Automatic annotation (TrEMBL):
The keyword Signal does not apply. It comes from Paenibacillus chartarius. Gene3D superfamilies: Aldolase class I (3.20.20.70). Residues 4-223 form the N-(5'phosphoribosyl) anthranilate isomerase (PRAI) domain. This is N-(5'-phosphoribosyl)anthranilate isomerase.
Length: 228
């Protein structure tokens, strides 16, 4: 069954609702974005996430911090105030930085790979290997997302899903998860999951109404992923 990540969360009310649903990851955006939160804000939301949980992370969604080209010093300073379970990197971060984050900070690392919205060229195994082989052992998951020229990801638009299978092959050989983001909504996510079977899906604007998280859309999104 695919995991679900709801990204761009900013309110304790949303955190409380996501705890009631079968959500696996809650994303807090530290990169430049209209959904950006400070370390202090994220810390308060993570405390809400942990509140009343005695059995550890298996009994709650994992807290994911989304960054674009952060320094190690920035990550360590944020971790002091907001104890993340996962760091998701959306920029041009090197394999060396990814490995250092895992070793020094002791969290899981998701690395985003941006795909062009208009391109329908299916990448070859050699092309993917040349792009990703250096990240073997340095990351826990690869996240496919639609390229955004300003923020790197979070564009709210889909890429050609036909590009997913060769990335899945690479991910399975490398022993990492393959997650998919980019333009997902309650109306299209069941088609993605049933047709391509990613290990997980990631949504932000697709479960919003006028820029605010819509709990009805979130419930529908989660239900349609888990039944696919």
């Amino acid at each position: 069954m695919a995991t679900v990540k709801i990204c761009g969360v900013r309110t304790p009310e949303t955190v409380r609702e996501l705890r009631r649903l079968s959500v696996d990851h809650i994303g807090f955006v530290f990169a430049k974005s209209k959904r950006q939160v400070s370390a202090e804000e994220a810390g308060a939301l993570i405390r809400e996430l942990h509140d009343g949980v005695s059995g550890g992370e298996s009994e709650r969604p994992l807290a994911v911090g989304v960054f674009v080209d952060p320094s190690m010093e920035q990550l360590e300073a944020i971790m002091d105030k907001a104890p993340l379970d996962v760091i998701q990197l959306h920029g041009s971060e090197s394999p060396e930085l990814c490995a250092a984050v895992k070793q020094r900070i002791g969290v899981r690392v998701f690395k985003a790979v941006s795909l062009e919205r208009e391109s329908r060229d299916i990448p070859s195994a050699e092309n993917i290997a040349g792009r990703l082989d250096r990240y073997r052992g340095a990351v826990d998951a690869i996240l496919l997302d639609t390229h955004d020229p300003v923020y790197g990801g979070g564009s709210g638009t889909t890429f050609a899903w036909e590009c997913i299978p060769p990335y899945q092959v690479w991910a399975r050989e490398a022993g990492v998860q393959l997650l998919v983001a980019g333009g997902l909504t309650p109306d299209n996510v069941d088609n993605l999951v049933s047709s391509f079977g990613p290990d997980g899906v990631d949504v932000s604007s697709g479960v919003e109404t006028e820029g605010t998280k819509d709990l009805d859309k979130i419930r529908k999104f989660v239900e349609r992923v888990k039944r696919s």
